[in-house]
Write a structure and sequence with these properties.
With 352 residues, the chain is of the alpha/beta class. The chain is 39% helix and 20% strand. This is D-malate dehydrogenase [decarboxylating].
Length: 352
């Protein structure tokens, strides 16, 4: 039996409700495929911030640097300003552990009604590769003349050649491994005059190394429209940190609900642990009711198994999700059902 040490960070809100279901399903698949987990649970959260003034202890990241993975729920709660909670926990993990790829699949499952009429499952099945370490998410800038009529706020965007090239490389390699071999770049080089023309140049230069990949690019504004009107056009979509963030809520919404969307914050070189978390947040509007959809968390667990080198175990989880949805098994309200979080988690564990 192979044992993996995983840091578990339920975090805030529905994170605390969906993480146990993720663990339930990982345990079920582990029993079947002879994989064991040592769960190292952390209370890093807004609650902790209120008690101690920090989202996580000062030496927190040192303590999990050698772990095999990080399984996170969601971070953020209305009692703590979002920039404090997120820059105190989620973003430092992504950066310290050089998780520069945020991989987010988008797929319409059989048995799920897309809000876009007449879309069949094969029509929506693509991957978003989001740059996860730099770009529009930067701490550079500042606020001058605060509170006066002359107030000025400046936010710098940071795009480094290394940072852009490494995420593009990942996206090209991913496109290369897929049957359609098609890569789309999200840009805005008509309006963002320094960084986006640079992004386009890097993209065009790298495309030369991949002659059999079909490439195209769209400005982010029309790209959001194409996600709704032509989701079948996409195979792999690569974007900067902010563009990737926006596209990765839109894509899953087009497949019915963001409640099923998973993500992998990857350190492709495996120098550090990677982190697996659903795309959604802590959902304060439904937290505490036990009705959150756990599929995004559970599918994130499948992505973790894939990364750890267990593609068959990962596949078993995705197959269970496919069956549950196709066979009209229990589903939560965001998918038109009445089941609660635990019922969906248990049904998936049983299918495994
Ligand atoms: P959200 O994703 O938490 O919620 C948006 C809407 O989607 C809400 O109506 C919510 O009820 C619904 N929803 C989300 N997940 C669901 C699920 N699993 N099942 C059913 N419905 C679901 O986004 P928000 O409201 O913008 O953010 C709330 C908090 O979460 C904020 O503090 C935000 O910063 C944080 N956040 C954290 C992460 C993360 O940890 N990675 C991601 C996004 C938002
Ligand atoms: C996500 C979230 C985070 C992000 C927020 C909460 C900082 O929206 O993981 O998509 O923008 O990266
Ligand atoms: Mn987001």
């Amino acid at each position: 039996t192979k044992t993996y040490k995983i840091a578990v960070i339920p975090g805030d809100g529905i994170g605390k409700e969906v993480v146990p279901e993720g663990i339930r399903v990982l345990e079920a698949v582990g029993a079947k495929f002879d994989i064991a987990f040592q769960w190292d649970e952390k209370d890093w959260s807004c609650e902790r911030w209120q008690a101690t003034g920090r989202m996580m202890p000062e030496d927190a990241l040192e303590g999990i640097r050698g772990h095999d993975g990080i399984f996170l729920g969601a971070v953020g709660w209305p009692t703590v300003p979002d920039h404090v909670s997120l820059w105190g926990l989620l973003i430092p993990i992504r950066r310290e552990f050089r998780q520069y790829v945020n991989l987010r699949p988008v797929r319409l499952f059989e048995g799920v009604r897309s809000p876009l009429a007449d879309r069949a499952p094969g029509d929506i099945d693509f991957m978003i590769v989001r740059e996860n370490n730099e770009g529009e998410y930067s701490e550079m800038g500042g606020r001058l003349n605060k509170g006066t009529p002359d107030e000025v706020v400046i936010q710098e965007n940071i795009f480094t050649r290394k940072g852009v090239d490494r995420v593009l490389r990942y996206a090209f390699d991913l496109a290369q491994s897929r049957p359609k071999k098609h890569l789309t770049s999200a840009t805005k080089s008509n309006g963002i005059i320094h960084t986006m023309p640079f992004w386009d140049e890097c993209f065009a230069a790298m495309a030369k190394d991949y002659p059999d990949i079909r490439t195209d690019q769209f400005h982010i504004d029309i790209l959001t429209a194409h996600f709704v009107q032509h989701p079948d056009w996409f195979d792999v979509v690569v974007g900067s940190n902010l563009f990737g963030d926006i596209l990765s809520d839109l894509g899953p919404a087009v497949t019915g609900t963001i409640g099923i969307a998973p993500s992998a914050n990857l350190n492709p070189e495996r120098e550090f642990p990677s982190m697996f978390e659903p795309v959604h947040g802590s959902a304060p509007d439904i937290a505490g009711q036990g009705i959150a959809n756990p599929i995004g968390q559970i599918w994130s667990g499948a992505m973790m198994l894939d990364h750890l080198g267990h593609p068959e175990a990962a596949r078993a989880i995705v197959a269970a999700i496919e069956r549950l949805l196709a066979e009209k098994g229990p589903r939560t309200r965001d998918m038109g059902g009445t089941a609660d979080t635990v019922a969906v988690g248990k049904a998936l564990a049983d299918l495994i």
